[in-house]
Every structure is written in structure tokens, then in C-alpha cells.
């Protein structure tokens, strides 16, 4: 039976939890849920998840625990900035804590940020991925190897 290799595209079902059992994402939300297609091209997906899938066969399941370095990375405090509230209100009329925004930096690059604090005149923006710094647990099932590497 074929095994997933670097360069393959595969369809997987996964169930992701934190160490305390809280579910952060799953492709098995209901019986009609479709599997997730992932390209094993390196840096297209979570690095540790790609590594875990390589070598798996269709129908095979596996549990894997990923430390932050193999998932969404460690938190970078330099990605947390405080800006004038008026700057954000130019883009969002009613900013709220927890709201995710897509803002452009000085070079014009788009960045995803989360509003983490709002005061009378300042807003704190966090550019870290929401799962950065978290250990993630996945239960993975390879449903299909869609396109094998050539």
C-alpha cells in the first residue's frame, strides 16, 4: 500500500486538542464533514503535522503531540504593539477585544493581528498566531493520497 511522501497531496481527517482535552479544531464536526486536503511540500502546513503524515498509508490513524516549535512557533513578544485607538478606528468602527484584523505594515505587507486590550486612547495588537506557544495534540487519519509526488 502506498505511503504518503514529501510532495504528495493527501486528504486527512484530524481532531486537535490542547493537553487539557479542549478541542481547538476538528474536521469531524459532523457526519458530513469533508476531510482536509494538505500538500506535503514543506512549510505549507504545520511542520510537525506534515512530518507525522509522511509514511502513513490510506486508512491509517496516528496520534501525535506537537510542541510549539513544531506547530505554530513560540510566542514573540515583539509582535505585540500598542497603537493609538484612532489608528484602528480608521479601519474598524467598533473595535472589540478578541477581534482579528488584517492590517498592512509600513512596507505594505498584510499581517493578521488580534486586539488584546483596549483603553480610552490605546489599542494593543498581537501579531502572534492564536495558537503560538501552545502544545497541540492531533489524532490524524489519512483518508486518501490524492496526488503522489512525481
Strand percentage:
35-45%
Domain count: 2
Q: Overall pLDDT, averaged?
A: 92
Number of helices: 2
Silhouette? elongated
Low-pLDDT runs of 5+ residues are: none
The level-1 CATH class of the largest domain: Alpha Beta
Based on the structure given, which CATH architecture of the largest domain is correct? Roll
| Secondary structure category | mainly beta
Any idea of the CATH topology of the largest domain?
Chitinase A, domain 3
Record field, number of beta strands: 9
Question: Helical residue percent?
Answer: under 10%
The Rg value, from CA coordinates, equals 19 Å
Q: What is the helix/strand order? A: EEEHEEHEEEE
> What's the main sheet like?
5 strands, antiparallel
* End-to-end Cα distance: 17 Å
Description of the structure:
By secondary structure, this protein is mostly beta strands. Helices cover 8% and strands 39% of the residues. It folds into 2 domains: 9-73 and 131-147, Chitinase A, domain 3 (Roll); 77-126, Thrombin, subunit H, CATH 2.40.10. β7 and β8 form a beta hairpin. The longest helix is centred in the middle third of the chain and has 7 residues, at 47-53. It is elongated. The mean pLDDT is 92.
Any chance you could write out the topology, listing elements then pairs?
Blueprint (H helix, E strand, L loop, with lengths): L8 E9 L5 E4 L9 E4 L7 H7 L7 E6 L13 E5 H5 L10 E5 L5 E9 L3 E5 L9 E12 L3
Antiparallel strand pairs: 1-2, 1-3, 1-9, 4-9, 5-8, 6-7, 7-8
Task: Describe the structure in brief.
The protein has 150 residues and is mainly beta.
Features:
150 residues; Chitinase A, domain 3; 8% helix; mainly beta
